[in-house]
Amino acid sequence: MLTATYARRMEAVRASEIRELLKLTVNRDVISLAGGLPAPELFPSEDLAAITATILLNEGAAALQYSPTEGYPPLRAQIAARMNALWHTSYTAGEILVTTGSQQGLDLIGKLFIDEEDEILCESPTYVGAISAWNVFRPRWIEVPTDEDGMIPNELERRLDACRRAKFLYVVPNFQNPSGRTWSHERRRSLMETAARRGIAVIEDNPYGEVRFEGADVPSLRTMDPEGLVIGLGTFSKIFCPGLRIGWIAAAAPVVAKLVLLKQGADLHTPTLNQMQVSASLAAPGFAERIARIVALYRSRRDAMLRALEREMPPGVRFTRPEGGLFLWVELPAGIDARVLLARCMEAGVAFVPGEGFYPNGGHANTLRLNFSNMSEERIEEGIRRMGVALRGLLANRAAERVEEARVP
Amino acid sequence: MLTATYARRMEAVRASEIRELLKLTVNRDVISLAGGLPAPELFPSEDLAAITATILLNEGAAALQYSPTEGYPPLRAQIAARMNALWHTSYTAGEILVTTGSQQGLDLIGKLFIDEEDEILCESPTYVGAISAWNVFRPRWIEVPTDEDGMIPNELERRLDACRRAKFLYVVPNFQNPSGRTWSHERRRSLMETAARRGIAVIEDNPYGEVRFEGADVPSLRTMDPEGLVIGLGTFSKIFCPGLRIGWIAAAAPVVAKLVLLKQGADLHTPTLNQMQVSASLAAPGFAERIARIVALYRSRRDAMLRALEREMPPGVRFTRPEGGLFLWVELPAGIDARVLLARCMEAGVAFVPGEGFYPNGGHANTLRLNFSNMSEERIEEGIRRMGVALRGLLANRAAERVEEARVP
């Protein structure tokens, strides 16, 4: 009845068939390599029970009350200090806006910048949550060809030259979701030179940076940003837990001031208690140790997945070897549709995410994303084994069909 | 630097001078009749500490994990059951979307319906949070003249006739923020007849309905809605606590399905733990008793404020006598600017909110909103006394200026 009165932007908002399909995995004994769920066995349940009781019994009147849109002041200061220590930035507390997960950061940034038909430039593939946050503002998505070191500089320049109103560059430089790739230092420097020359904002989304298994940190884009063009996004979802929904935006103070006005309209403020829970947890002993346990666990799960892929995948399958994060990326032989493979795998009790949804302009049907954070090594190995069986089945069918076609007079 | 690249919608997003001014009240010993803060002495701090420990120790892996965008299933069912029991509606769990405060409900509804220049019709005055949520979508605000019983029907019809693309009617039928007024049954029926005849959506925002001091409940618009045009907004902020940010939208299932897609882009989901905290609190003994204590406390504070206003306000001041909620509304003598009065009152250590911000098209400088939920009876009485002194001072100045002007040849 009301359908006729929806806003035009709803044309760009569609339910994902894949997401609906994957919902079926929740209540069944499926080996899910699909979601991006952290390992719940490392959640801080007991510590948080004690911390929460202390907060509620000592400061309940504040913890359960409305609070400033900008965020809980001690948490803003802690986030700035952590970023500065980890990434050698020089943020102040006033440059941090606490958000209801970093997904809200994406929404607020879209509201701040995107007019209909504006261009936004992203890696190809890019984070699907950014696509869903920004499609409502009806931008043109410019996918920049990306190799194992990041966006290819002359491809970026060429596309920027063709833009009419390019609003920002969106990148996930560390262990990208979905590809698992990390930008090289050189490519980061090149990106920031381009951004500075053109005066264009850069969204540096870094949810996985602390989940590094090996190798050295690569400098944050923010350390190459004398102009204040970088807007950073962060989250406690991967290094603490996602269910509290605590993320942040780090940006120049005038940008934060605008984002605060938008957040006021969006949800008034992020839950007060949750901010105090994270703040107290950061101040308590054991925060860094828990991250170290997460890193060790995910490293061994990544290793298990890589070993299984090497063993089980037929020739012609390529996959990335991420130095951190939660995901790796698979390219199937050309002509194999990952959605068809998913249907077969679901019958065999294994789920993953076909890659097409990570390309805002579609295509790339032969790609898929695998998550290794949420399943045990045994289940990862068994899942990849079943995927291998299903894929070899598809390839055999295809070969048989070709023989068949060749026989038809 | 980035200012030049903001989206056009930012022209409609401005910092409120009043809000900035009122921030100054937070850290001083000001009698604040300004905010809309619930009384923290009735927050469920101790009960919630115990409930949270139980959740985290028994179900921590779920409580701290990502969860469905639609909301925690038991909470959706509890909200539907409560609404049906309180308001004689017939919502199912599938018609409830849990939101990060009901402010997020406003944002999602704006995204779903409003194209630039679309008309939205509201009471005059209306809730300032709706103005800040929807201004980003650049609608035309059509204020409908409103008396003590609700929108005036022929004024509404006349304005709808003049609309090109009216998208929805927005009303707060119970103890409205800011006016404190409650719609009569007859006016509600008339509104829904108009909405049905024209096939226009109605947003029924009901944050205060359970905070009734006297008189009988008036039926919900939803009970007069065979077409499914009503979209309800609710919140636990006023009957439990605001710091957890748990609200909801109640609407026909196809509308909820669209809102779910928008919420996915906006913040993925409302914090899992917070939803489980509210769900467990609803199931525990004492929830209704706590609401009864809130109602009794706010009733006595409203009474204290009304007594003080009768005693302290000079002739020519009018105010509403709300049957519930947190606010009442004051009209000063014509020509007195509430912002000027606020400046005087701030010097005397009292704060309130000037009324102009509640009119999306401005004007009505002689109005103001008073909150009675957050201060003791003694402080309310002292605050109103000081306001009376300040106002009489302004009126005396004005009288003296008039005598002066009459003398000038």
What this model shows, in words?
The structure is a homodimer of 409-residue chains. Chain A is an alpha/beta fold and 409 residues long. Chain A has two domains: 11-36 and 289-407, Aspartate Aminotransferase, domain 1 (Alpha-Beta Complex), CATH 3.90.1150.10; 65-283, Aspartate Aminotransferase, domain 2, CATH 3.40.640.10. Helix content of chain A is 44%, strand content 15%. Chain A has twelve helices and 14 strands. Chain A has helices at 17-23, 45-63, 73-87, 101-113, 128-134, 153-162, 185-198, 253-267, 272-283, 287-312, 338-347, 377-407, and strands spanning 31-32, 96-100, 119-124, 140-147, 150-151, 166-171, 201-205, 230-235, 246-250, 318-319, 327-331, 350-351, 353-354, 367-371. An eight-stranded mixed β-sheet of chain A has the order 2-9-8-7-6-3-4-5, sandwiched between helices. A four-stranded antiparallel β-sheet of chain A has the order 10-11-14-13. In chain A, strands 1-12 form a two-stranded parallel ribbon. In chain A, strand 6, helix 7 and strand 7 (201-205) form a beta-alpha-beta unit. In chain A, helix 4 packs across helix 5 (128-134). The longest helix of chain A is centred in the last third of the chain and has 31 residues, at 377-407. The first copy, chain A, is globular, with a radius of gyration of 22 Å. Chains A and B meet through helix 2, helix 4, helix 5, helix 8 and helix 9 of A and helix 2, helix 4, helix 5, helix 8 and helix 9 of B.
